[in-house]
Write a structure and sequence with these properties.
By secondary structure, this protein is α+β, with helices and mostly antiparallel strands. The chain has 3 helices and 8 strands. The longest helix has 19 residues.
Length: 178
Amino acid sequence: MIARRLLAVATAGLLLAACADDIDPGTVGLYDRAPVPAVPDRTEPIDPGGATLADGLYWAELVGFDAGQQPVLLFRLTQAFFAATCLAELGEDGCTDDYGTLDDPSRTVDVPLPQVVSVTVAAPSRQNYAVTAAELLALAGAGTAAAAAPPDYQYIEFPYLLTVRDGLVVEAHQIWVP
C-alpha cells in the first residue's frame, strides 16, 4: 500500500515536471504587475562627452521621442544619490524625500526601441507594470495606455533607472517618487 502511494506521488511529480517544461516563466504580458526596481545608493556619474555609456545604472528623465521609421526614446541622464549617500554627497537641502540629483553634468541619449528588452512603468498607486518599449513610446506621445492597462492606470512622468550593458541601454524601469 505504501509502495503504491509512493509510486503515485512520484508519477504525479514527474507529470508536473514534464508539464512545467511547456510553460515559459520568462513570458511577461503587457501591464503584468512587476516588482519595484531596486535602487542603488548612487547611480553612475555622467560623462557628457563620452562616445558610449559605461555599463551600470543611470538616473534619467524621459524628455522626448522620435516615432519615425527608427523610433527612439530620448532620456536626459543625471547622477542620483539615495539615503545616507545622498546626505553625504548633497547635504540635507539637496536630499528632499531621501534622494537628490546632481544635475550638472547631464547628458541626453537617444535609445532605439529594439535594444530595450525590459521596461516597467510606475503608477501613482506605486504599483509597477511591465510594458514594451513601443508602449512606452505611445505613453510618452499621447499619454494614453493600451487597452491591457488596469482601468485606473495613468502615465505620470516619474524618472527612470536605466541599465546599460555593453554600452547600450537595455532596461528602463520607472521609479515612483513623491
